[in-house]
Each structure stands twice: as structure tokens, then as C-alpha cells.
Amino acid sequence: MSYLATTIGRKQIVGICGLGLSLFILVHMLGNLLVFVSPQAYNEYGYLLTSNKLIYIAEAGLLAIFLGHVVYTIILSLKNKSARPSKYAVTAKGEKKTSMASKTMIYQGIIILIFIVHHLITFKFGEEYEVQYGEVVMRDLYRLMTEVFAQPLYVAWYVVAVILLGYHLSHGFSSSIKTLGFYHPKHTPKIDMLGWLFSAIVTLGFISQPLFIYLNN
Amino acid sequence: MGGSDNTKINLKLKVWRQKGPNDAGMFQDYDAKDISVNMSFLEMLDVMNEDLISSGQEPIEFDHDCREGICGTCSLVINGEPHGPDRGVTTCQLHMRRFQNGDTVVIEPFRAKAFPIVKDLVVDRSAFDRIIQAGGYISTNTGNAVDANAMPIGKDIADEAFKSAACIGCGACVAACKNASASLFTSAKISHLAYVPQGQAEKSERAFNMVVQMDEEAFGACTNTGACSAACPKEISLENIAIMNREFAKASGKRRK
Ligand code: FES
Prior knowledge:
heterodimer, A: mainly alpha, two-stranded antiparallel sheet, 8 helices, globular, B: alpha+beta, Ubiquitin-like (UB roll), Fumarate Reductase Iron-sulfur Protein, Chain B, domain 2, 2 domains, two-stranded antiparallel ribbon, binds FE2/S2 (inorganic) cluster
């Protein structure tokens, strides 16, 4: 049997891809903070990224990581579901219960997937406004964003989805590290804490921007 | 020890009854009356069975052997918790004083595709034996028993190996896991032998083959929920699973070369 045909091999791919996506999410969140600098800084950052030919390689890489995470998760989840064909009548409530975040990863993932597709349609493939700074004409993403985040329902859905993403990361981050084989009685609690901290920072960072835009309107 | 506590309690039991592997099975209600709080959970079932037999009914089948928490034969999911509500004990070590008069107690078998139900609360756990057969041993020439201290092992390593070796193979980890994963069991066996010098020769093959066998037995994959370790009567640490993941990755790398 080959590495990628085993559960552990597949889990390790899901974990590595998950950590890769976490890194992307962090960078994305930090880039978004340029909203607080100025509309021009925000638009110029977008222009800097998209005007470089390397963006296609980066996007292809990101897509591959994303698919690796999603496809192997689906395969593993189906196996996991089939491993318990008849359910228990009662679920553990006492000392032997398990955390909600860890039990519902797949459902969080499905909602996050829907969010990502919707998010790409709204922004990446959304209205192409233009703006000129000096000589250069570029996409006015800031204008699109202010229009989108003027809608309270969109802001609410965005905030909920981002909180869910943080929740997903709160288990996923440290779980990936364990799946890759790192565990230490002293350091693992610290890594768990780091996972929580990372999730909180990413979540707050992503929430701050739509709320800022919405409240400033 | 107890003995002086003469309290008796009455319980409502909901017990899973299933005639055979292919029967659909269902819950049956029983009244357990005048149960001494000094009894173990299995003794309570013994008393129930005496009553069932004397009234001409089929007794409730359940697994048991040593009744002192060392053999790993007893099982049961009690109110959703494998081996009942207490941490670090087996069902045979669970006492009725843990329950209140009038409680409803739901008793189910361990549920997993890889542990088919034989009858009532008895499940077939031979999948674990096959995982052991795939590599959970060391090959050695037989002969006289080796002197106890012939092979020097540091106390810290011996302690860690012993903690993993404490696994009694009861299957509560599988029963507790939402994915019915056998990762805690398999990893305890892999790391127990990976710690000690005797296990080094076959370390890599062992990790690979036991994981492959685990996958073939229709267990699910680990998602690090920690349910297994919480339910484990020997409180085997999740660290074992990380060790298994690491040993497995190393073994896979070696096989490619
Ligand atoms: S009967 Fe042996 S551990 Fe419970």
C-alpha cells in the first residue's frame, strides 16, 4: 500500500495543506488591514499582487493546496462515517465528552467552502471599477468593497463565516501539528494555545474591516 | 472498602438486545430493584440475569473475564460513555454507588463497523488481534528467560514504554471515537515497542504494517478529538498517536528509498 492510500498519509496531506492555507489566511488578513491606512494603499497593494505574472503560479499553488485539503478531507470523512454505521442512542455528556469544535470540523468546512466561493464571486470576479493614481490605472477594489459592506446582511454573513473559520482553525491548527507527529507533554498545551491565539487574531482581523466600512458609511 | 453501606437503589435500565449479528436489535426496558450500591456494574447485570433466567427469559449477554480491570474483556457504553462515567476505570471496576436511586441507565454495545455485534452487548474485537498480528510483537529466539537487568534501559524510557504498554486492548477508544478509529490502540502498541531497544529492529516495518492493517479493518481515521484518551480505562495519552504518525511517516519515507 502506498503512503497516499493510507489514512495517516492522507491526514498528513490534509494537515500540511491546512497549515499552508492558514499561512495564506494570515497574509490575506494582514493585507486587508491596509483598509485602515487609505483607499489608495489598499488598491495599490492589490495592484502590486495582480500585476505580477507570478500571481498565476501562486494562484495555481494555492488552488492545489486548497483542493488537497478539501478532496482528501472528503475521502477521509466518508471512511469515518462508514466506520460507525449504527449510532449510539446517547452521547457522552460527562467527563468523556468531546469538544464541539473537533466534532463538527466537516460541517464548518462545508460552510466555509460555500463562503469562499461566494467571496470569490463577489470580489475577485466582481465589478471592475477603475481608479487612477498618477499615471497608473488600476482596479478600484476599495470602492467595490465599500459598496458590498454597505449591505448589513452581507456584513452579517461575512462576520459569521469568519467566526466559523476561526472556530475551524482553533481545532485545525493544533490538530495538524499532532497529525504530523509533533506532540510533547510540555509543548503541546502551548501549541494548542498558539492555535487559539492564531484563530482569534485572524478572526478579529477579518471582522474589523467590514465593520469599519459599514459603520463609517 | 465499602460493605458497611447498606443503601439499595432502584434503576431503570434500557438495554440493547440483539439476537445475533444479522438481527436489527432494539432497546428493552428493565427495572433493576434493590441494587446494593456496593455491587460492581457487572454484578448488577449478574443479578438482573439471575432474575431473567429464573423467569424463563434469555439472559443479557455481556463480555467479562478478570473483573479487576486488567484483562480488557469487559466493555459496554453506559449512558453514552464507554466503561461508564468515571475516568480511568473499566466497567468491571465501576460501582453502583456512582448512580442515584431512580436513574435511567442506557446500556449499549461498543458500536463500530470493525466490531460487529455477536449478541446483545457482546462484540467481536478480533480486528485488534489482526492489527497485533501485523506487527505488534518482537521476533526473538526463544530459550531461557533473559536476566531482568541484562539490557540496560533508562528509567525515563522504561516509564514511557510502560505507560503505553498499559493498554489492555478493550476497544473503548474505538467505541468513544466519532470515527470509530483504532488509532489510540494501534499507536499504544507501536510506541510501546518503539521506546525499548528490543523493538528497534522491526520498528519501521511494524509501524507501516500495523497502520495498513488498521485501515483494512474498516476503522475510521483520527481527527484528534481526544475522545479515545478520555474514555480509556488506562488513560493512554494522545501522544502515542503522534508517535505513530511520526513513525509511520518515517517508515513510508524509508520504503520509497
Ligand atoms: S473484566 Fe477484565 S478488565 Fe473488566
